[in-house]
Amino acid sequence: MNRHARSRTTVYAAGALALLAAATGCTSDGGSGAASAALVPASGSPASGSPVTAAPSPSRSAGPTPTASPTGGGPAAGDAAAWAKWHLTPLPPAPPAPADKPVKLARTGPVPVFSEVKTSDKVVFVTIDDGAEKDPKFVEMLTELKVPVSMFLTRDIVKDDYGYFKRLQALGNHVHNHTVDHAQMSKVPPEKQKSEICDAQAALTQQYGTPPLLFRPPYGDGANTPALNTSVQQCGPRAVVLWRESMQIHDMQYQAADKKLRPGDIVLAHFRGPKDLKGETMTQMFGELLARIQEQGFAVARLEDYIEAPAA
């Protein structure tokens, strides 16, 4: 039995399978690609250690309204039998969404860039990029486990089956912008950057009914450049979201030297299947991700529950 199997509670050990996953990170250098640590100004100046948010907005929030969990608190954590079915130990339940959102977005002006959220809650946020894999078993998994995710979709990768992601959206998961065709933003001129973001924004809004609030550049590339920030502003998203950890084959790749999760970290995964995961499935990869989170005692919260969208 490998070290991952030993880490699971013995109540499920008899039925556990070693879950192998290989996630090809959306990074150009094999790393996380997120140069930002915490909320950093759009100008790309070094982080000061405390998040920098956009100008405070009025208390009434427009934009996506997070779907409430059946229990009325944070996202529900599916029952033990459901977790046992997927050979996993249940995660702790997420706390109720904070009334005072730690990330406050403004309607106009430069957008903040962040890879973590300032919170004392022992939670992390799972984000999933691209959209190449459309495994119905993954919809089943999220339905049963009730783990919230935020989806950063690439238009040309998902347009052959927009409906698949509507099923995930119906579970309360939000759709965000990840460009038209996954261009490396620092390698294209400003006009191309703008079309990559604006055209994806229009298509995703039409298909999913709500304008994406957040944007993630492929590979995390160009996130802190003035040109990209201007394009994001012009196209509609109100923040650029990076990440602190990315899911790899059996484990996460960490930016922190001690290789530990911290409250408020944003975790990157991808919609990937056997073709990209050396024969393993999306559900196996995601199971490994949840196991790594559970081992460190964290819950998974909904990212949008910690963000105050700008007033209309």
UniProtKB/TrEMBL annotation:
InterPro entries, A to Z: Glyco_hydro/deAcase_b/a-brl (IPR011330), NODB_dom (IPR002509), Polysacc_deacetylase_ArnD (IPR050248)
Stretches the record annotates as Disordered: 30-79
This protein's UniProt keywords: Signal
UniProt feature, compositional bias: Low complexity: 34-70
Pfam families in the record: Polysacc_deac_1
Signal sequence bounds: 1-28
Residue ranges occupied by any NodB homology domain in the UniProt entry: 122-301
Highest taxon listed in the record's lineage: Bacteria
Name of this protein: Polysaccharide deacetylase family protein
Species per Swiss-Prot/TrEMBL record: Kitasatospora purpeofusca
